[in-house]
Backbone:
């Protein structure tokens, strides 16, 4: 899959839909499509393919993973078939009864149709056809949903996005049912349900359909797949190229504009997962029905790149919670099951079997059977190579990016990406840190309880705007208690950070980025170094953030951590009574100010326990700095926010500020066996010195050993020299790690 297919070449291939002098604007869809008997054998032909049915029928019970999936589908559908058919008139918002029932029905029709095709038991298909006919009878009388608010309204659901999701599954059910469906039923269902629904999602919801956004992707996939099954080329064409046929919108524009050349989706990993399903299923359907398009070769294989990128953008099976992310979504979601199975069906890449084994699910089609078969026959445990990666952002890869530094159990995630459209947060140059599967320096993600009806019907909560999107909610720089770009999405979308370096050497990895636009007259850069050889028990993280401003300002740098605070150094001034918020707006109103730490020494340490491991942050503390101790939950009348602890490193009025910290992982707590090992880290102090455009971070261990970590902020042909009190440090590359005291080797 290394052939590059350009938009122009693909546009030429689309001539099949604009033949006979018709263009996309004037082509008129028919009133319904009936598949004649001679062509019924070609169905199904979307993800489930007629050519695979003999193998599926013969081998479905041979491989445990596929057999379990088939049995689970049977159990689910059998239970539904034993109950009365329920197709309620739409009235409830997300999480409400009718909302959930229509979701359930779509999946049941999809499962029942698939079971009928694979098992040959037509009772499943007959039941699904009955359900489809109920919808065909209901749909003409359904107006816009009564509960739609700020979302573009749907009919079956309160937002049109859900209506598109519904059709993606239902058209696959219809496709699988065609061989056993009468012409009368085909006419009823296509004329009164499928075609009207496709028209509503396209011409009837033009603003959403033409969006280059995940909502537009779902709509394009639903309409395009409907066109493929019903032989309505007009629907296929507008799905690919937008309502006006120009290519400024539609599926191809979405592939062009929403992904970087590395496969990173601009809204972040959570929405990459969500958007992946329509990209994958529509691409697979196009590959089967219109192979001349070469859709999986488009943009150097961008669909497959997106699947692999989504896998890498995870830790411990869960996606990095960047932007509007709900933190329990991971690699075992249905979208990723579809993605992994399709990718494996196309590539046969054995690395993907490790992800499939984690998922313990497969799709009920030929791709899923291939995964189940090869995983069953594999000799030895499969593995997927999670590594240090830089995922560039933007269609051309020039809008910053997300960097991942991995070493052993340590993972640093550095977000220096674009705004991410409306789901983006104001968190330029923020970070997350993992130790194994545990999120240690944490990102809040979204304030939302998805489909939980008591929490405002499952929509994004008000605190998503007042807290989760604000800069102080993240581990990112804040000036004068104001969010970056003044919290304006349009302003933020005009500018992007610059990832200046992503390099590694002997025992170290480095990423650095620059943000010159988040605050007027203020520029800041941030560098993370992950070190393996400085005498600590686990890899050490050095975090260095430098600020330069035209005018003096206050600067804050929050750190949010999971777990229980163990100890701190420095003098504490605690608010033991009469808690007050840390500020009045921009997210500060949600933080309780529990006190602050000050010191006359070079640094302050704060240590916490998370699960069975200890973590110590050593913060360099120059003059005018202090640390606020915070806890989330102020001004939260509906108790929507999680109670999470944080540290806010604060600088008073200054034009230049440098934040330097070191984070170490150490020790063990075993509550079952009642022992504790190394609850205190090995670092006693850190100091920072700027020498021209070099930074020196001096780390002193309790053993007496000391190390200088020299960081070059400019390349200077890769050769560097810094004179220090301990002698000259000379090196080639971005980082030098030198032992400057003690006799022990690092």
Residues:
């Amino acid at each position: 899959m290394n052939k590059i297919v350009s938009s122009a070449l693909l546009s030429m291939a689309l001539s099949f839909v604009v033949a006979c002098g018709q263009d996309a604007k004037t082509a008129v869809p028919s009133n319904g499509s009936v598949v004649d008997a001679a062509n019924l054998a070609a169905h199904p032909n979307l993800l489930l393919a007629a050519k695979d049915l003999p193998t599926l029928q013969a081998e479905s019970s041979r491989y445990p993973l596929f057999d379990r999936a088939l049995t689970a589908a049977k159990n689910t559908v059998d239970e539904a078939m034993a109950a009365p058919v329920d197709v309620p008139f739409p009235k409830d918002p997300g999480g409400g009864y009718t909302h959930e029932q229509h979701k359930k029905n779509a999946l049941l029709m999809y499962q029942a149709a698939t079971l009928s095709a694979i098992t040959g038991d037509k009772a499943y298909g007959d039941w699904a056809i009955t359900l489809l006919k109920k919808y065909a009878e209901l749909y003409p009388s359904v107006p816009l949903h009564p509960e739609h608010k700020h979302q573009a309204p749907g009919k079956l659901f309160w937002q049109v996005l859900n209506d598109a999701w519904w059709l993606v599954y239902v058209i696959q059910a219809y496709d699988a049912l065609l061989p056993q469906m009468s012409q009368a039923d085909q006419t009823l269902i296509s004329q009164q349900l499928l075609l009207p629904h496709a028209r509503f999602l396209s011409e009837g919801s033009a603003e959403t359909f033409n969006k280059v956004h995940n909502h537009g992707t779902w709509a394009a996939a639903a309409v395009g797949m409907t066109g493929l099954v019903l032989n309505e080329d007009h629907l296929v064409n507008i799905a690919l190229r937008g309502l006006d046929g120009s290519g400024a919108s539609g599926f191809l524009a979405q592939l062009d504009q929403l992904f970087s050349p590395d496969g990173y989706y601009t809204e972040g990993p959570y929405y990459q997962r969500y958007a992946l399903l329509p990209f994958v299923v529509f691409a697979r359907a196009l590959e089967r029905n219109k192979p001349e398009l070469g859709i999986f070769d488009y943009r150097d294989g961008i669909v497959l790149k997106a699947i692999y990128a989504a896998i890498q953008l995870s830790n411990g099976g869960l996606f990095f919670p960047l932007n509007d992310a709900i933190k329990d979504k991971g690699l075992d979601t249905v979208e990723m099951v579809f993605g992994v199975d399709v990718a494996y069906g196309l590539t046969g890449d054995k690395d993907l079997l490790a992800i499939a084994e984690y998922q313990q699910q497969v799709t009920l089609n030929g791709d899923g059977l291939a995964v189940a078969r090869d995983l069953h026959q594999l000799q030895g445990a499969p593995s997927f190579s999670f590594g240090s990666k830089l995922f560039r952002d933007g269609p051309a890869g020039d809008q910053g990016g997300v960097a991942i530094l991995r070493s052993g159990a340590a993972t640093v995630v550095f977000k220096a990406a674009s705004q991410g459209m409306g789901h983006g947060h104001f968190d330029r140059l923020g970070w997350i840190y993992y130790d194994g599967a545990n999120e240690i320096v944490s990102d809040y993600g979204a304030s939302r309880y998805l489909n939980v009806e008591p929490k405002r019907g499952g929509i994004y909560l008000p605190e998503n705007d007042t807290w989760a999107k604000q800069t102080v909610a993240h581990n990112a720089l804040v000036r004068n208690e104001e969010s970056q770009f003044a919290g304006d999405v349009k302003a933020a979308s005009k500018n992007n950070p610059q990832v200046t370096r992503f390099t590694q050497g002997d025992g170290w990895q480095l990423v650095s980025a620059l943000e010159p636009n988040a605050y007027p007259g203020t520029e800041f850069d941030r560098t993370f170094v992950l070190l393996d050889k400085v005498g600590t028990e686990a890899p050490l993280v050095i975090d260095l953030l430098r600020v330069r401003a035209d005018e003096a300002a206050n600067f804050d740098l929050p750190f949010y951590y999971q777990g229980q605070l163990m100890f701190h150094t420095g003098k504490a001034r605690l608010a033991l009574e009469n808690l007050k918020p840390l500020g009045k707006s921009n997210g500060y109103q949600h933080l309780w100010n529990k006190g602050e730490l000050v010191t006359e020494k070079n640094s302050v340490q704060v240590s916490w326990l998370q699960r069975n491991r200890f973590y110590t942050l050593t913060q360099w503390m120059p003059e005018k700095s202090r640390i606020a101790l915070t806890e989330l939950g102020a001004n939260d009348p509906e108790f929507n926010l999680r109670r999470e602890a944080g540290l806010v490193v604060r600088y008073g009025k200054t034009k230049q500020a440098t934040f330097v910290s070191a984070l170490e992982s150490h020790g063990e707590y075993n509550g079952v066996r009642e022992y504790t090992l190394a609850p205190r880290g090995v670092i006693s102090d850190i100091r920072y010195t700027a020498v021209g455009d070099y930074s020196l971070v001096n780390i002193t261990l309790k053993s007496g050993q000391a190390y200088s970590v020299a960081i070059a902020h400019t390349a200077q042909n890769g050769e560097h020299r810094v004179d220090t009190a301990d002698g000259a440090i000379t090196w080639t590359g971005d980082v030098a790690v030198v032992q400057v005291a003690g006799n022990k080797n690092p």
The domain at 389-444+451-741 is CATH 2.70.98.70 (Beta-galactosidase; Chain A, domain 5). The chain has two domains: 7-24+33-377, 389-444+451-741. The first strand starts at residue 314 and ends at 315.
